[in-house]
Amino acid sequence: MTSLLAQIDSLGRFVTKNVEYTVRVFLMVYLSLRAAILDKAQGFRQIVGVLSSQIYFTGWQALPLISVLALGVGSVMILQSLSNLTLLGGTQMIGSFLIVMILREAGPLLVALVVIARSGTAVASEIGNMRANREIEALESMGINPLSFIVFPRVVGGVLSVLGLAFYFNAIALIGGFLVTRFFQDMSLTFYTDSLMKAFAKEDVLIFFLKNGFSGMIIFVVSCYQGLSVKRSPHEVPQVTTQAVVNSIIFVVIFNLMVSALFYLNQLRSLGVV
Amino acid sequence: MKIESLKFEGVTFTHEGQDPIVQNVEFDFPMNEILWVKAEEGAGKSSLLQILAGLQIPQSGKYLINGENVCDMSFEEFLPYRLQIGYSFDYGGLINNRSLFDNLMLPLLYHKVVSPEEAKARVEGLLKEFGAEKFAHDRPAHVPGRIRKLTCLLRALVMRPQILLLDDPSVGLGQDSIYAFVDHVHRLRKEGHCKHVFISSYDEKFMNLFEYQIIHLDEGQLYFQAVDPEKRVVHL
Questions:
Q1: Fewer CB within a 10 Å sphere, N or C end of chain A?
Q2: pTM value?
Q3: B166 by DSSP, 3-state: which?
Q4: Of A39, A135, A143, the CB nearest to B95
């Protein structure tokens, strides 16, 4: 009985802790949005300055890594799907298969993981160090709201970067991957592009924006929150950076899974299966 | 906006898990004075200055500026008061990814207090006056600690506030910089700025360059001690 109560107690603590964390993160989003709207002093130039540097570091500088990853993933997926579909006599299905695997599933997840590894860590440690070095307090003392000056442009820049990177990833994986595999297979480009175009539906646009947009938001909101949670000491910075990575991965994976599950349930419902 | 009074009404402030810095304090701060905030080490002088700057919110009580309780105000509501308060940290506080010049320009440009040309002239003038112009375009990590400290002090002055809060201002400064800084504060006061100055310091020599009054922070309470400049013992 005592053991059961202890387990319930532990579960309760776990749930409360996570709910509290989520509420705090949402509160920060609300406050930074509010601060950005109400901040009359912050000019367009100030926002654009931070926003463009965020896009440069998160989007532009990640392009080489994303290119390699997209080419690799695209080539492997095309080769694997071709070899298996040819055996089953369903080569014309290649477009549908690639759209599902790359555009809907692998693309958003891989791009998010790259952005978490490169930029989520950078943002969490940068803001954590700013906190430890009292730069956040300094901004406040100058009448500059850190939420509108630091958090808001980073989140907006992050979301735009993730969307851009995801588009680039899909393009390179689908087109570049095909060109790389031309050495190993003899499918014509016209057949391939026709198959892709037929498979591409308007739901894919929705999934693209939903998954990538929210992944970007999750990564940068969580990273900013973790960075701001540093109290005083620089020794907390690596800890919050690790926590930012862990939380971002968990939230992004759960979110992606939820979107996929809801989408396929909806598809099954429209087909009358459920 | 003119700052005419600063008052604590039943103010209590505690850092988590520590003894109270101030406990149920009723205090009317003397205005138009240079106030030396004295206390034992770790008693909470920096926290007191941060409460006065609006950087820390007391757990209970009212902090009244011109009779208005600023503890309940949002960031935006407090902004007009904040722009009249210059605060200098005892350590750190410079924005590390900006040059010293940009650090000084930031509040002026952000709040559009003066035109960009005037802001540039003001900052260049300050850096020249303190002999720091050769470091102007370096980032804080690349300059000597003395220059970092000086820049932090100058940033508190650059907006020409009515209230000046200086936390251990003389620590890490060279003697020349100290004299130049004190002269600058005196000049600003003559011009009608920095009317209410609060300095926390252990440096009696530095404090003797001012005509100060004393506020003691002792066991969570504030006490005012008037100092007659004629009878002051000056150890130079």
A1: N
A2: 0.87
A3: strand
A4: A135
